[in-house]
Write a structure and sequence with these properties.
The chain is an alpha/beta fold and 447 residues long. The protein is 44% helix and 18% strand. A 6-stranded mixed sheet has the order 3-4-5-2-1-6, with helices on one face. A 6-stranded mixed sheet has the order 8-9-7-10-12-14, with helices on both faces. It has a two-stranded parallel ribbon with strand order 11-13. Helix 4 packs antiparallel against helix 5, helix 6 runs antiparallel to helix 7 and helix 12 packs antiparallel against helix 13. The radius of gyration is 29 Å and the shape is flat. The structure holds guanosine-5'-triphosphate and magnesium ion (MG).
Length: 447
Amino acid sequence: MIPPDTIVASATAPGRGAISVIRLSGPQCMQIAQILSGKTLKPRIATFGSIIFKSEVIDTGIWIYFVGPHSFTGEDTVEFQGHGGPVVIQTILRSITHLGARLAKPGEFTQRAFLNGKIDLTQAEAISDLINASSSSAVKAANNSLQGHFADQVDSIISHLIALRTQIEAHIDFPDEDIDLQSINAFSLTISNIKTNINQLIHSAYEGAKLNRSAEIVLIGEPNSGKSSLLNALARAPLAIVTDIPGTTRDLIRHELLIDGLEVRITDTAGIRSTTDIIESEGINRAIEAIQTADLVLCLFDERHQQISDASVQNLIGIPSNIPVGLLNTKIDIHREPIDNQTRYPLLKVSAKTGEGLIVFTDWLLEKLDLATHAETPFLARQRHLDHLKNASAHISAADNHHLAVETIDLVAEDLRLTQNALSEITGRFTSDDLLTSIFSTFCIGK
Ligand SMILES: Nc1nc2c(ncn2[C@@H]2O[C@H](COP(=O)(O)OP(=O)(O)OP(=O)(O)O)[C@@H](O)[C@H]2O)c(=O)[nH]1
Ligand SMILES: [Mg+2]
């Protein structure tokens, strides 16, 4: 194996700031720090000093040295806390690379922590998810994953699987011996329990995965129905142009909104009508496309409608397949006559102008998007985790479906092996280099 080289990066966000942290990891870092500081750093002691390169002081700050394996990466690590100016940082990085380190790739520090066994893959991913968390619930759930709550549950299922496989494979090694009924019943019960545990974990992972992205809400309606006004009222900013000319909005206008600490993305669209205007019809096409990936489509109706039928909804969004739909009666400050809702979709009333109904509407949004329940989400999950869990579930179900006997024991053993592999991919014990590269490449530099 090639020994690791020494990597360096600024660990703080780009731009100007009070302090920046430059981080080095690898075998040469102490030597580089000694040359630049002119000091022998004591492990885990903050040492005040300068960075002197080619006889010039570049910066002055605090040096901290961690001796591997007792560091984040598991290697010797040095951190320098200096002044947060982009030019200072670039000059420090140049001096360090001149002395033999190389600039780190995105996520490379965390990747080294994973490769050195300091954290498993779910914890590595949780670090990135914590940084990117879009809500307070996501922060809580990412911290749970970082502390190993998710990995612990996966590992617990794996340890039951290993115990079961050991017993079952012992029977394969001695094929002449019959398996007694008691063993068969015990094995079958364990397989069924493992299946239940995996399916429960899938349920939690679904909840956790929802937190990893903002919910998409699309506003749809005829021209002038009040879509842009509603977006502006929710954003409390004049993001979209509002006029009484039908067909004002042409492009999609997106805004990330925090409701009770949860991030949702609202998209304002062009009013739906038949038109010969090329720009407007392109806007309508984009609106229709946005519907396809939405978590919730809100159809807006103003005072021009006395009743809303399935046909009125279809005129706007076609036949809704499995996308949740909600109806909004807009401009209730000028028209209070109730609209007759003949559809199965819920109808809410709002005024973008006075703000009436907006609190009830946003509370309803959280419930509708099933986001309110996330307060108790035990861990943050990614689509990758769900895919592996579903794979594991398919293999354990296959094992469960074989009628366990001497003739089928090979098949059951193979399905159990595949179940274990699928679960091990989650924590990274059984993972290809390609997957690791794709996971860590989405991290920020210096993490
Ligand atoms: N009184 C009142 N007027 C509103 C309200 N919401 C929108 N309007 C008015 O209705 C007109 C159209 O509003 P917009 O928000 O531009 O409607 P839109 O659905 O975005 O229209 P297009 O972009 O053309 O599709 C404007 O004159 C708004 O001032 C409301 O809650 N109350
Ligand atoms: Mg508009």
